[in-house]
Amino acid sequence: MKNRIKRIFLSRVVVITSILYSITILVYFVFFYEKFVNIYGEYTELLKSMYYDEQVNLSIESFAVCLVAAIFIALIYEEIVLYTKPIISVNTRLKSKESVFHSCKNNMGFSSVVYNYTLTFEADNGVELSFIVTPKHYMIIFEGNKGILNYKQGISNSFISFHITAIE
Questions:
Q1: CB of 162 within 8 A of CB of 122?
Q2: Which domains are seen in the chain, by residue range?
Q3: Which residues in the chain show pLDDT less than 50?
Q4: Which of 17, 25, 62, 98 could cross-link with 118 by S-S, CB 3.0 to 4.6 Å?
Q5: pLDDT tens digit string along 18-45?
Q6: Nearest-CA neighbor of 97 among 81, 115, 114, 74?
Q7: Distance CA 97, CA 15 (A)
Q8: Are β-strands 111-123 and 158-166 bridged in parallel, bridged antiparallel, or unpaired?
Q9: 3-state secondary structure of 35
Q10: Is 158 exposed, middle or buried (0-12, 13-18, 19+ CB in 10 A)?
Q11: Which of 157, 132, 134, 160 lies closest to 148 in space, CA to CA?
């Protein structure tokens, strides 16, 4: 399921990039191309070749800007879609807890410590759902607890809450 969602996200990025790049090239040729040809058309071959290089640079730079813009647009779209999706409630049992410690050192000699807390739930139908949660949720839910899991499904599932109904 996650691979399918990632492929959909990637296809959105490709489509948005293509549209933005096409618009950029269209605007360039409609509004700017003839002005540059008239200015540079009277000069030597050296200037004409420089003009060609500038065109190549412009197309590469505009493609890069369109790609970055498309990624931002797709991420914002996914957040809007995730916000509007309904909350899914499932009877589950907490299968495992995992706390991962990361230590990073920057170039100035300072180090930072990051903890990632992951809860893995097993639904009644056998499907496993993993969520990165806050330390608060990690501390109050214990392995074997049964309850109702509330989450939203998107590129990565978003943990909402877990209401304990039985303790094992």
A1: no
A2: 2-84 (no CATH), 88-166 (2.40.50.660)
A3: 1, 44, 46-47
A4: 98
A5: 888 888 877 776 666 655 555 555 554 5
A6: 115
A7: 39
A8: unpaired
A9: helix
A10: middle
A11: 160
Share of the chain above pLDDT 90, in %: 6
pLDDT score of 166: 81
Q: Quick check: 73 and 83 in contact, CB under 8 A?
A: no
pLDDT at 38: 54
Which three-class secondary structure state does DSSP give residue 141? coil
Report which residue type is found at 4. R
Instruction: Give the pLDDT confidence of 134-150 residue by residue, as tens digits.
Output: 888 888 888 888 999 99
